[in-house]
Write a structure and sequence with these properties.
This protein is an all-beta fold. The chain contains no helices and ten strands. The strands form two sheets. Strands 1, 2, 3, 6, 9 and 10 form a six-stranded mixed sheet that branches. Strand 4 and strand 5 form a beta hairpin.
Amino acid sequence: ITETPLTPTLTPTVTSTPLPPATLVGPLPYKIHPGSPVYMPSLNGTCAWTGVGGMVMDASAKGVKDVVVIVQGKVKGQPFESLTLSGLSPAYGALGGYEVHLSNELINSTGSLYITLYSLAGQRLSDPVAFDTIADCGKNRVIMSFQKIP
């Protein structure tokens, strides 16, 4: 009896690496609307709330739905990230309204929160825009609207 050494056989495995989202060439299509931010009381008048909302508009100031709105930064020193879609909060404008709840209490923040728009495919549509919050019952809702550049 003669022993024959075994030769291992390798079977290739197919793997996929996700591609990064395509980047837009040239300036990003959305800018913060002139006059933003505006500070107002919450929609239901409560002081136990801080949030940001607004409208995403096309070049003719009509609401645009299904734009991803991401708020990132820190709330009371803790990392914060939340996303929503434009069009889910009609109280801020037909089709393009959005709202992100930041806290169940009044908060002061300066330069620690940013809002950025993205397409459903993950393309960034705006530069990140910093905003502040004010711990005041009459100013606990930050209005940040965006408009597409013509």
